[in-house]
Amino acid sequence: MKLxxxxxxxxxxxxxxxxxxxxxxxxxxxxxxEEIVKKNQGRKVSIGWRLKEGILIAFI
Length: 60
Description:
Blueprint: E1 12-18, E2 21-26, H1 30-39, E3 45-51, E4 54-58
Antiparallel strand pairs: 1-2, 1-3, 3-4
């Protein structure tokens, strides 16, 4: 999934991955992260930040 950040939006957005597959992106991941973790027990869930210059992924 290729994403573009629109010019009128911030320079970053959060991304949530399940087993290295992008499942959500946006600016407020708190509720979505908890929901995704509950739905995907036993799978690797990670959160990253998409910047205009690239992607930074933090594996938890």
